[in-house]
Amino acid sequence: MNNFNFGEVLTRAWKNIWKHKVLWIFGILAGCARGGGGGGGGGGGNYNYQTDDLPFSGGQAGHMMEQAAQYFENNLWIILVVILALMLIGLISFALGMIGRIGMIKGTALAEKGVESIVFGEVWAESLPYFGRIFGLNFLTGLAFALLIIPLVLLGVVTAGVGFVCLLPILCLLVPIGWAVSLIVEQAQAAIVLEDLSMMDGFKRGWLIVKSNAGPMVVMGLILGIGGAVASGVIAVPLIIAFVPIIAGMGSLRESFTPLYIALACCLAYAPVLIVLNGVISAYIQSAWALTFMKLTQPKEDAPLIYEANA
After folding, report:
1. CA proximity to 217, closest of 282, 166, 293
2. Shortest CA distance to 193 belongs to which of 96, 117, 104?
3. CA gap 113, 151 in Å, rounded
4. Which candidate, 19, 21, 38, 170, has a CA 20 to 30 Å from the CA of 82?
5. What is the rounded distance in angstroms from the CA atom of residue 241 to the CA atom of residue 13?
6. How distant, in Å, are the alpha carbons of 107, 114, 122, 181 from that of 308?
7. How many Å apart are CA 92 and CA 110, to the nearest integer?
C-alpha cells in the first residue's frame, strides 16, 4: 500500500502493449466481455398534433397489437430460435472475453520478464488451463448480482414504479458494492493466473489485496474507469457525427433513405477501426490491472516491477 507508484504502473502498461502489439488481439477478445448500456430520450417542440394524425393512436394501436400477437403465435419457433441464437452468441462472446483477459494477464507477465517477443499461439495455449476458473469466477459473480437485481426490478414493474422509489436507497447502494466487487474480481483473476489458485482461493486472495490496499485500488479504479470511459467516448465521436445530420433532418427520411444508407456505410467502414481502438483500450486497462496486482504483491517495496509468472 505504501509508496504505490501509479505513474509507473500506467506508463509500463502502455509501454508493454505498444511494444507487444499482439496483446491488442487479446484486448479485442477481452472487450467482448465488457458490457455497456445506453439510454435515449425524447423531446418536444411547438407542434400541434391532432390525435387522428398519429400513426399509432386509437384503433390503429389496438390493431397493431393484435397483429403482433398473431405474428408471435404463428412464428413462435422463429422467435425461440432467434433467442437461442442470441444467447449462444452472448455465451461465445463471454467465453472469448475470458480468454482475452487471461491472455492479457499472461502476456503482461511475460512482458515484465523482459521477453523480446510474445507469440499469440503460445499465450493462447497457456491461457486455456485457467479458462474454467476465470469463466466460473466472472459468471458466478455476474449471476449473483443478476439474482439480486432482477427481483428488485420486477417488484418495481409490478408496483408501477412505486417499488423503485422505495428501493432507491438499496439500488444506489448496489452501485458502489458492484464496483467494489469488480475490483476484487480484477485482482482475483490475476491471482488465479499468476499464482495458479483455485477459483475460491483466487477470490479470497483478491479480497485480501483490495482490503489491504483500499486506497490504491480505489484510485486506480477511478483512473482506469474514468479514463477508459473518456477514451471510448472519443473514439465513438465519428459514429455520432455520422448520425447527427439524420437526427437533425428526421423528416427528410420520408422522402429518401439515402442519408441513412450513407451513415450506415460510414459506420460499417469505421467498424474495423473502432474494434481495434477498443481492443487497445481494453488491452491497456487489463495490463494496468495485472501490473497493479504484481506491484501490490511483490515481496520488496523497492524491487523492480518484474514478475516471474508460473508456466
Report:
1. 293
2. 104
3. 47
4. 38
5. 31
6. 12, 10, 17, 27
7. 27
Cβ within 8 Å of residue 286, ≥6 positions away: 26, 27, 30, 100, 101, 104, 105, 108
Question: What pTM value is reported for the model?
Answer: 0.79
d(CA 104, CA 102): 5
Is the four-CA dihedral 184, 190, 192, 196 of positive or negative sign? Answer: negative
> What gap in Å lies between CA 92 and CA 135, rounded to an integer?
11
Q: Which three cell numbers stand for residue 24?
A: 491488442
Least confident segment among 12-26, 158-172, 217-231:
158-172
Residue 255: helix, strand or coil by DSSP? coil
pLDDT tens readout for residues 207-238: 999 999 999 999 999 999 999 999 999 999 98
Determine the Cα angle at 287 with ends 89 and 10, to 5°: 140
